[in-house]
Amino acid sequence: MKRRVGGLETEYGLVCVRADGSRALEPEAAARELFRPVVAMGRSSNVFLRNAARLYLDVGSHPEYATAECDDWWDLVAQDRAGDRIFADLAAQANERLAADGQDARIHLLKNNVDSAGNAFGSHENFLVDRRGEFTRLPRYLLPFLVTRQIVTGAGGVVRSEPEDGAAGGAPAQFVFSRRSDHMWEAVSSATTRTRPIINTRDEPHGDPTRFRRLHVIVGDSTMSEVSTHLRFATTDLVLRAIESGRALPELALHDDITAIRAVARDLTGTAPLPLAGGGTTTALEVQQRWLDHVTEFADESEQAVLETWQRALDTVRTGDRTWAAQNLDWAIKERLFTQVAERRGVDLGDPAIERLDLAYHDIDPGQGVFAALQRRGLAPQRLAEARIEAARTTAPTTTRAHLRGQVVTAAQEHGVDHVVDWTTLRLTRPGAMPIQVLDPFTTELPAVDALLAEIRSQGTAAPAQPMPFA
């Protein structure tokens, strides 16, 4: 599939604390305060926005944002960054209300995967695949890539191993490529929480079920760096295209994917031996390099920048030279930052100050988040122009079905017309209104949608409704 639609679902950590750091509101109460403008606008905590993205409150009081369908991975990064800013605005408004009410309380939204109590939440990647392909064959080749991809796209973090039986104390804290790896329990499964898999097989295509299937990858870290987020999708897309091509592929199936993913996370050299299913061993670096070399054979000119960035990331691990990566890739930015702070304070990586720094790195508040501060100092990447990110807050991608959904939501909100939309369906809520189904994710024009837009404009209020207060 040369042209593929994808999307990213991000669950945000939510905490509301007093000035002294103690908890001010329980997550449920903080979530209600955060979503107050959303409910006022859409009479629900589950809404689709003008940019065709979905914003909602997930199980466990996790605010979640699902980007619109994108067929350009930089468009997806822009949509993802727009989601951060929409939620940051909601948090700022909630904090203003709490302050006006005299409460010593401040809401923080954290774009990470693991909180201080060890609870995990997700950053799920979605890729359109052809229903006619052999989906059961796909994990055999994709899993080794996903297990080792963290040496390029991991968010980085610190873990402390549990003490062995009879041992006193725990192992020293160590920096890892991905803390998410310790929360994976199966290679492939239809579950998402109880036995969290690398690939989720729940069959929800959000499109024509006779033509499409949705590949749901839930192993990825929530990434702050635009470079890291782009690489997550661009490299995986290239590997999927290679698998779909029918050509001979690297045989790199691992003996135990879950054991391997934990080993890869802890080996910052990328050279730890990983047992293969067919005997022998490989390494994380070798798996990634084999796939990079393989996809290079068919990548076109427009994808050369992705290949070069992928290679630079692998060279970083191979040589130990962090010069480039420490300003571009999340794990390397955090490794340098944590090491500098630990050395300056004379503490080890297991110190609570480092844990607080990790959380602050993922705080999406543009005024308080550490990543945003690093960007202002030129120590973290900002590849997308501000205008592109701001436009993505209210404008859907124009080359996918999202364009139609965005038009309908925008027109309905501007003219005060009640409506209901989801990933595949558009309709008004008036009696007798018929739903319009858009099952092809690549559809950008449809006469039925044109007629629906005309009906909205004719039935709407003379004075357009106010725009969303948070986008």
From TrEMBL:
<keyword id="KW-0460">Magnesium</keyword>
<dbReference type="Pfam" id="PF03136">
    <property type="entry name" value="Pup_ligase"/>
</dbReference>
<dbReference type="GO" id="GO:0016879">
    <property type="term" value="F:ligase activity, forming carbon-nitrogen bonds"/>
</dbReference>
<feature type="binding site">
    <location>
        <position position="67"/>
    </location>
    <ligand>
        <name>ATP</name>
    </ligand>
</feature>
<dbReference type="GO" id="GO:0070490">
    <property type="term" value="P:protein pupylation"/>
</dbReference>
<keyword id="KW-0547">Nucleotide-binding</keyword>
<comment type="similarity">
    <text>Belongs to the Pup ligase/Pup deamidase family. Pup-conjugating enzyme subfamily.</text>
</comment>
<feature type="binding site">
    <location>
        <position position="423"/>
    </location>
    <ligand>
        <name>ATP</name>
    </ligand>
</feature>
<dbReference type="GO" id="GO:0019787">
    <property type="term" value="F:ubiquitin-like protein transferase activity"/>
</dbReference>
<dbReference type="GO" id="GO:0000287">
    <property type="term" value="F:magnesium ion binding"/>
</dbReference>
<feature type="binding site">
    <location>
        <position position="56"/>
    </location>
    <ligand>
        <name>Mg(2+)</name>
    </ligand>
</feature>
<protein>
    <recommendedName>
        <fullName>Pup--protein ligase</fullName>
        <ecNumber>6.3.1.19</ecNumber>
    </recommendedName>
</protein>
<comment type="pathway">
    <text>Protein degradation; proteasomal Pup-dependent pathway.</text>
</comment>
<feature type="active site" description="Proton acceptor">
    <location>
        <position position="58"/>
    </location>
</feature>
<feature type="binding site">
    <location>
        <position position="9"/>
    </location>
    <ligand>
        <name>Mg(2+)</name>
    </ligand>
</feature>
<feature type="binding site">
    <location>
        <position position="54"/>
    </location>
    <ligand>
        <name>ATP</name>
    </ligand>
</feature>
<comment type="function">
    <text>Catalyzes the covalent attachment of the prokaryotic ubiquitin-like protein modifier Pup to the proteasomal substrate proteins, thereby targeting them for proteasomal degradation. This tagging system is termed pupylation. The ligation reaction involves the side-chain carboxylate of the C-terminal glutamate of Pup and the side-chain amino group of a substrate lysine.</text>
</comment>
<dbReference type="GO" id="GO:0010498">
    <property type="term" value="P:proteasomal protein catabolic process"/>
</dbReference>
<comment type="pathway">
    <text>Protein modification; protein pupylation.</text>
</comment>
<keyword id="KW-0833">Ubl conjugation pathway</keyword>
<dbReference type="InterPro" id="IPR022279">
    <property type="entry name" value="Pup_ligase"/>
</dbReference>
<feature type="binding site">
    <location>
        <position position="64"/>
    </location>
    <ligand>
        <name>Mg(2+)</name>
    </ligand>
</feature>
<keyword id="KW-0436">Ligase</keyword>
<dbReference type="GO" id="GO:0005524">
    <property type="term" value="F:ATP binding"/>
</dbReference>
<dbReference type="InterPro" id="IPR004347">
    <property type="entry name" value="Pup_ligase/deamidase"/>
</dbReference>
<keyword id="KW-0479">Metal-binding</keyword>
<dbReference type="GO" id="GO:0019941">
    <property type="term" value="P:modification-dependent protein catabolic process"/>
</dbReference>
<keyword id="KW-0067">ATP-binding</keyword>
